[in-house]
Design goal:
The chain is built from 32 helices and two strands. The protein is mostly helical. β1 and β2 form a beta hairpin. α6 packs across α11 (about 225-240).
Length: about 725
């Protein structure tokens, strides 16, 4: 595996101002403007800075030039990378001053994490440490480190190797990581440590965490605010895991009719928890409505009413009679402990309105005593409202993929959250920058139905411009929540993004558009060159269910990543499951951002098999591009444009020229058309094309060959441009 030590800066203070994601992105920009002699001058900076999202709304190119000129009169002066970083910070400070507030100080990142000053909530840290001490305490690896002392930095020291975070992810969503893929030696070298953190971040994305502002080096350094932020998300996912109709069908009791059930399906788990809390408070005679986990809970009264109605055997009238909020909060916690609820917070946390800790506490109460009826009629109705297994798996995959893009809106349910068109416009703007006309878009909340239709009509229009196959499909189909159509459109979006990423890495070869057949042939050629006998006939090849081909492919792109002593023959269902789980974790450990499940490999789900193969191909070509850069092999996220012209071109051109492209197959797949049950036939055959007509996926809608070239999209890991 390529060596990774992060982007290092000699000045510790300067290094502390940026996360590794920021440093890699800025390093990429710096490299991209080097001239033929490898120099960067002040004159080269304005075009680069003016295009960064941190400054696009604040300065144009001329304004950037004037600001830089104030501190450097010679525009031909050569600057090194550290001077480049200082110029960025200077410009960022000017942007903050110009805005009149601090809101732009973190505009470089999608999340609200700033790079200047970070405060750690000591109470939250103590609660997370208590949680960690309690759940994985019997783990054979962690038990020698636990319990942790919340008063020290033991949590951050333990997090540096990545094992703890991987274990926490598996506690939150069991089976996410194959623990055989975790490097658990007592002393890890830099590569092994980086692999653990890469596995952690890609797995965190796969359970719904937002990690666009965190890099592996940030975790290696155990930056407290980033580590706690990630742990907070993981614990939140664990505590809220049962707040849905599939896991807890009794929640249907919270609503009155089927229309309300649909609304309940679309609510985020936090909102469901509030709805559950208010349901019981109303029955208990509490006249106020709880709308948040902060100010509405400060006096402790809502907690007192809730616990009195859920656990009357432990109720005490003195809890409500007490005038002192802090004393009441203490009595509430004592009452909750009788239900075996963990002490996630202190009386002070309740009085001060700590939102994260209050949410965790209410979730604990729900897990131990939800107070909902076990009426089998209601439960049957709830189970009838949930989707079938295949639809649920696809919805999960696309939901996690969308959230991994770093869009402003977090998606909780694809079928509900996408119906107003806004999220789809955000995604389209991510994968095809500039394609959305925001002047003609309406941001939620949207009261007028026709505004939703307008948003969705623009979605369909852009989809057709990107050569998606959308026959007789209108925006209203999305507004109406046509599940098959929504899934079909999202698949075309995901496939288009994958092919564009690969295209951007291979443009040096000046070859054809990347197609499904290219991906298939690349994988087969890679395995064959390594002397392996496995081959993939198509993305629906049933032999893929054993997992052997993908393990051989992963071993070919990085020989040290697969431990063959852990691989089974894949003959039994149990052996197939073991191999499939291992494949996903090994791919994520390399750096592949994938959202499939082991069942997708075992059942040979063609869509997910294609995404897995394409992700491995993208990682492999990306590594070659990074390694071929002169002296910049540590910049894993550098864009292809930032490569040195000579050697990198040769490497990629050589890799691509090895592809045996079947022209007929390539022509048939040059536009991102949807395959309902298959995406490519055998490599030597012409692939059938698919289209969507009136929301139904149909066969036999051939590409005309006259489609316009698809616009370029930005590469993965470059959200901060």
């Amino acid at each position: 595996m390529a060596g990774f030590v992060g982007v290092l800066v000699s000045d510790p203070w300067l290094q502390s101002q940026f996360t590794q994601v920021e440093l890699r992105t800025l390093k990429s920009r710096y490299i991209s403007i080097k001239n033929e002699s490898g120099r960067v001058t002040v004159r080269d900076l304005p075009p680069v800075f003016a295009k960064l999202k941190a400054f696009t709304e604040m300065f144009n190119e001329d304004e950037v030039r004037v600001i830089l000129g104030e501190s450097c009169t010679n525009m031909e002066e050569e600057i090194d990378f550290e001077s480049f970083l200082r110029a960025f910070l200077n410009l960022q400070a000017r942007a903050t001053a110009k805005s009149g507030s601090s809101k732009h100080s973190s505009s470089f990142l999608k999340a609200a994490t700033t790079t200047f000053q970070h405060t750690i909530n000591v109470s939250e840290k103590s609660s997370y440490v208590a949680h960690i001490n309690g759940y994985p305490g019997e783990d054979p690896f962690l038990k020698k480190y636990l319990p942790l002392d919340p008063g020290t930095n033991a949590l951050f020291d333990l997090a540096k190797d990545g094992v703890l975070l991987c274990k926490l992810i598996n506690v939150a969503v069991p089976g996410t990581i194959d623990e055989r893929a975790i490097n658990t030696k007592s002393v890890l070298n830099p590569w092994e440590r980086n692999e653990n953190h890469t596995l952690c971040l890609n797995s965190a994305k796969a359970i719904g965490c937002t990690v666009v502002n965190i890099g592996t080096q940030d975790l290696v350094e155990a930056r407290p605010h980033l580590v706690l932020g990630l742990i907070s998300q993981i614990i939140k996912i664990q505590l809220l895991a049962d707040l849905n109709l599939k896991k807890t069908p009794q929640l249907v009791e919270l609503v009155d009719d089927s229309q309300d059930v649909e609304e309940l399906l679309g609510l985020p788990p936090e909102k469901v928890l509030l709805k559950w809390m208010n349901f019981h408070l109303k029955k208990a005679g509490y006249n106020k409505q709880v709308t948040n986990f902060s100010s509405d809970l400060k006096d402790g009264e809502a907690y007192a009413y809730l616990l009195n109605t859920l656990a009357p055997e432990h109720a005490s009238p003195t809890t409500l009679d007490t005038k002192d909020p802090k004393e009441r909060a203490n009595m509430v916690l004592e009452q909750a402990e009788k239900l075996d609820c963990k002490r996630y917070l202190t009386p002070t946390d309740i009085v001060e309105g700590s939102p994260n800790l209050n949410l965790a506490f209410v979730a604990q109460i729900f897990q131990h005593r939800n107070g909902l009826s076990t009426d089998t009629k209601n439960i049957s109705f709830a189970e009838m409202m949930t989707d079938d297994t295949q639809t649920s798996r696809e919805e999960r995959c696309f939901r996690l993929w969308i959230n991994s893009l770093g869009t402003a809106t977090y998606v909780n349910n694809v079928f509900e959250d996408l119906r107003n068109g806004w999220v789809l416009l955000e995604v389209l703007d991510k994968i095809s920058p500039g394609s959305v006309n925001w002047k003609h878009a309406t941001k939620p909340p949207i009261k007028m139905p026709f505004r939703k239709v307008e948003n969705c009509n623009q979605v369909i229009k852009i989809g057709k411009q990107l050569n998606f196959s959308l026959v007789n499909v209108a925006g209203n189909d999305i507004v109406q929540g046509n599940k098959k159509l929504i899934l079909a459109f999202l698949w075309q979006l995901m496939r288009f993004t994958m092919l564009q990423l690969l295209k951007n890495l291979r443009f040096h070869a000046q070859g054809k558009e990347i197609t499904d057949a290219d991906i298939l042939n690349w994988a087969n050629r890679k395995v064959k060159k390594a002397g392996r006998s496995s081959q993939m006939e198509s993305f629906k090849d049933k032999n893929l269910s054993t997992g052997i081909f993908f393990l051989e492919l992963l071993s070919c792109v990085e020989p040290r990543v697969v431990n063959w002593s852990l691989v089974t023959t894949g003959e039994t269902d149990e052996d197939k499951k073991l191999n499939a789980t291992y494949i996903i974790s090994v791919a994520r450990k390399l750096g592949c951002s994938i959202f499939l499940l082991p069942e997708d490999i075992i059942e040979v789900n063609q869509k997910m098999i294609l995404t897995l193969t394409a992700s491995i191909m993208y990682w492999s070509l990306q590594q070659q591009a990074a390694e071929s850069e002169t002296g910049e092999s540590t910049d894993l996220d550098a864009s292809p444009e930032s490569s040195a012209n000579g050697e990198n071109d040769k490497v990629l051109a050589s890799e691509i020229s090895d592809l045996s492209i079947n022209d007929a197959a390539s022509d048939a797949t040059s536009s991102p058309q949807l395959g309902k049950d298959e995406f490519s036939q055998e490599a030597e055959n012409t692939e059938p094309s698919w289209s969507i007509e009136n929301g139904v996926t149909m066969k036999g809608s051939p590409s005309t060959g006259n489609e316009k070239a698809s616009p370029r999209v930005e590469g993965e890991g470059r959200e901060t441009e």
